[in-house]
Each structure stands twice: as structure tokens, then as C-alpha cells.
Write a structure and sequence with these properties.
Blueprint (H helix, E strand, L loop, with lengths): L24 E2 L12 H13 L4 E3 L8 H13 L5 E6 L1 E5 L16 E5 L3 H15 L4 E7 L3 H4 L3 H22 L2 E8 L2 H8 L6 E5 L13 H8 L2 E5 L12 E2 L2 E2 L2 H16 L4 H7 L7 E5 L5 H11 L5 H9 L9
Parallel strand pairs: 1-2, 2-3, 3-6, 6-7, 7-8, 8-9, 9-12
Antiparallel strand pairs: 4-5, 10-11
Helix pairs in contact: 1-2, 1-10, 2-3, 3-5, 9-10
Length: about 325
Amino acid sequence: MTRSPRKPTAGPLPPNPPAIPPIGLGCAGLGNLYAPVGEEDAIATLQRARDLGVRYFDTAPYYGHGLSEARLGRFLARAGRDGALVSSKVGRGLRASPGGPSHDTGFVEAAPFEPFFDYSRDGVLRQVDESLKRLGGDRLDIAFVHDIGRLTHGDDHQARFREALDGAFPALCSLRDQGVVGAIGIGVNEVEVCLETLRHVDLDVILLAGRYTLLDQSAGPELLPMCLARGVRVIVGGPYNSGVLAGGEHFDYAPASGPIRRKVEGLRQVCEAYGVSLAAAALRFPFEDPAVISVIPGARTAAEIDANIANFYSRPPDCLWRALRAEGLIVGGWE
């Protein structure tokens, strides 16, 4: 397929952008999302992932208010960084807060810090430095601008977006020029801000959580074709939509509603009729679009790693996707 030329960018494209493996590990759960994970269990989960060939680890300062990054850093110090690809995020700083955060962030027994938004140049440079200290390295393979968009910021969206355009993205481009960052992108949960960002910034990669899944294909009509045409790689986070597609209770970081549960049950029945588990179908579905190069399901235990890897290596038949489309349970897709 012929791809359109890239737009001008705030800095030169990396000469050797990092190769992103097709399966990775999202490390929000290891920052105690929803429930605590002990240190030994967190390290055992990371070790099992490495033993089974996972080499891509995605984290963020927000995850456990530094806890996820610190745990990943301790693991890599022990296991070695050889072959490991690490992405983290900017846009949320951390300030010391012995009493914990002033509001519920979803992370329990997190590190004693208060997260706050800061997309300024100086703030982002400071955040990268702090992340590298927690991770124990001198380079981030990918740096994502985290949670820009109206879904997060509401009426403050335009001001925050302008702050990121003037501060965060030029800062990351500068770090990319210096070799401190290998590639730059955004890590978000909504499609519209991806389209908006691409009108201003030539990204290397987009990490989009929950918007190209069996429950939500809103990235399919416009965003994914645009990314394919421009050579912007897409990583799908949250392929289980916060767990509900893998037997969990949450959809989009909140308890799943009745309509969502009914749709999940409809998906399950069709998948099982074709001899495929719902979780396996959920993990494989994003690869039905050629713009998607990687999925990064989360895990809190070694057993969940085992399940993710088994799901990744499953090969649902093409007739399953056709059946799901015929039932109106998914839209679009590639034959």
C-alpha cells in the first residue's frame, strides 16, 4: 500500500525507531489498580512474562503514583534490560503526599504521592528524569503524552491541549533528538484527541486503550486508516476493556453496566459456538486491522500472564469475525 508523505514535525524522525513486539504487558495492575498486588507477586508476574517471551513493558508515573515504574525498574535491575522495550508517559507529575492523594485515583495502597497534570516543557523534562530514576535506566524507548483529551479534562481540554502542543511535544522531540527517547506518541482512551493531535503533530506511535476491541470499534472508521496511511504505528491497550472481556467486573475502569454485560454474553455465545474463548477472541481481534502492530493486556499474576500468552497464540477462524459482524456485534473489520 502506498503511504502518504509525513507532515513536517517539530524534530527529525528517529533514524532507527524501536521495533515494537506484537505482545506486551500493560503494567497498570502492578501499580495496584483496584486492588493491592504484593511486591513478590508483582516481580513474579514480570518474571513469568519475560520467561514466556514478553519483552515490551508499558508503564506510567500515574500507575500506583510511581509504584508501577519502581517495581518494573527493580525487576529489570535484577533480570537485565537486554532486549527489553519500555514505554512510559508524561503529563502527570507527582508531588510528595504522605497522606495519599486528595481524591480516588483507583490505585490502592499506592506510593505516597499526589498526581497532578503538567504538560509544560519544564514539567515534562522533569517527569522524564524522575521516570528514568524509578526505572533505573537512561533512556525511554517510547514516551507517550498521557491522557490529553476532553474525556479527561472536560472544559479544560483546549487549554491543556495547547499546553501540550507548546510544551510536551517539543520537549519530547528534543529528547528524541538527544537519544533519551526513542519514539514519541500519545497514550489515550479516546479517538477524537488522536485525530486532533495528528492535525498538529507527526507522531511515531499511538497507544489507544479500549477503542478497538470487541466492545468498541470507534477507532476503525477514520483513525486506523489515517494511521496506516501515515505510517503511525498503533498499539491497542485494554484489549479486554478493563477486564470485562476476560471474566472481570470492569468496563472502561468502572463496574460494567447491564447493557455491556448483555453484549458481552452475546459475544461469548458466538465465540464459543466457533470453539474460541471470548478472551482469546478479544486479544486477537485488534490484529484484524493492519494499522495495529501490538496489543498490551494487563496482568496481576503469573497465571494471567499464562492466559494472555495462550490467547495471543490462538488463531480464531476468519468465519468467527464474519459471524460476529452478521450478528451486529462488531462493525467493520478486514476480510
